[in-house]
Amino acid sequence: MYAVIKTGGKQYRVAADDVITIEKIAGEAGSKVEFAEVLMIGGDKPKFGSPLVSGAKVVGEFVEATRGPKVISFKKRRRKNSRRKRGHRQDLVTVRIKSIVGA
After folding, report:
1. Strand 32-35 to strand 57-67: parallel, antiparallel, or no bridges (unpaired)?
2. Cys bridge to 35: 5, 44, 77, 98, which one at CB 3.0-4.6 A?
3. Where exactly are the transmembrane stretches of this chain (predicted)?
């Protein structure tokens, strides 16, 4: 059985015991995380939400908080002596999916 969840403005296809990296959510290492925005539950008889599957949730465990790779945004206008360099590192969370509770 698998599910499609929505978190951080993105959609993820998850199954039990999967480890996913998502955008930062509140919590500490070892705590329980619940995703209530389930868009679809797949398996023998798939359930599709419109837009969400009612009564479904995905339970996971917060593994660790990390940061993504540094992304450099560099803009230059030639012959104008104009440059702008900005770096960014996204805060990320690693989550281990424990179970999918479907309605």
Report:
1. antiparallel
2. 5
3. none
